[in-house]
Amino acid sequence: MLKSSKNSAAAQAFIKFVTGKQGQEVLKNGTSYEYAIASNVDSNAKLVPIKDLQAPTVDPAKLNSAKVTDLMTKAGLL
Question: Which residues are CB-contacts of 24 (< 8 A; sequence separation ≥ 6)?
Answer without folding.
Answer: 18, 36, 37, 38, 41
